[in-house]
Each structure stands twice: as structure tokens, then as C-alpha cells.
Amino acid sequence: MSKEQIAKSLEEAFSQHGFAEPSVAKLKTACNVSLRTLYKYYPSKEAMIAGALEHRHHRYLHFLSEGLPEDKNKSIPHIFARLEIWMMNYAPNGCMSMNAISAFPDNPLVNQAVKTHKTEIRRFLGTQSEREDLATALYLLHEGVSSAWPVLGGDVVKSAEKAALCLLSEQPPLTTTIK
């Protein structure tokens, strides 16, 4: 089994069971590999979490990008519509990255995986909106959806999308950059 296949299985296991509950033995079983093979690619539970988060990150960006309209005025509504589908089908308990960092707040592997994911989502939103000056504001709306979803459900998506469209209707400043 490849490292990518193992990361996919780890993502599924952590998504279903959280981060505290599954032991390495349960993760080995979920991946359908030997302990030796699992440790070959991921030498600790924290490395397994980071691998699962990296896999999910790529899957998530691909998911958001599917069917993106060429008209940039329609890209943010499309992204929020895709976010709603993601939350319903893959993240009903909120953002897996934030759940991971809550479970392992001091682990550098987990922290780096989450930071990379969040930074790239912020950039993606700035690029897709062609309003890099609003990348952080759009990112905050996106994060608000994933945080509030377990409590408010679909209503939060509609509110965030409406707020994003209001922001995007404002005149951009003369210079824009994303750090």
C-alpha cells in the first residue's frame, strides 16, 4: 500500500473517530497495513495526523476548485456553495484541522500542517476573488462557516456568502498584496 493510500485511510479514521480515541493499533487496522508499514511512512501518531491533514488539504482544495467558473464574479458564491456541500458530507463536526490542533496544540507537526492548510486557503480565496486585499476577510468568513456549522448548519453559509458579496462589491484599494 502506498503512502497516499495510507494517508487517505488515516484521514477517514480521524474524521470518523476524532484524534484522541483511535490508538495506533486501531489506525493500523483502519489502514489495512502492518504496524511496520504504518511506522515506515508515519513514525508517530502525530505524524499520522499530519499526513491525514495534508491529504485532506489537497482533497479539499481540489473539491473547492471543481467547476470553478471562469467569471471571477461567480467564483466566491461557487466556493461557498462547495463549502456547504463539504460541511454536509465531510465535516459535520466542523473543521478537521481545528479539531486536530485542539487535540494536539503543542505538536509542531500538527501545527505546521494546520498552518499550511489555513495559509493556502487564505491565498486561494484572495486569488479566486481577484481581491487579494480581501483575502483575510474572506478567509475569516470561510473559517466562520466551518466553526459555526455544527451549531447553525446551512444558515451560516448563506450569511457568510452574503457578507462576502458585500465586501467584494466595495472598491478595491490602489495596491494589493498577500504576504
From TrEMBL:
Any single Pfam family the record assigns to this protein: TetR_N
The answer to keyword DNA-binding applying to this record is yes
Protein name (record): TetR/AcrR family transcriptional regulator
Q: Which organism is it from?
A: Vibrio algarum
Q: Which UniProt keywords apply?
A: DNA-binding
Record flagged with keyword Amino-acid biosynthesis = no
Checking PROSITE patterns in the record gives: HTH_TETR_2
Q: DNA binding happens at which residues?
A: 23-42
The residue ranges of the HTH tetR-type domain are: 1-60
Its domain of life? Answer: Bacteria
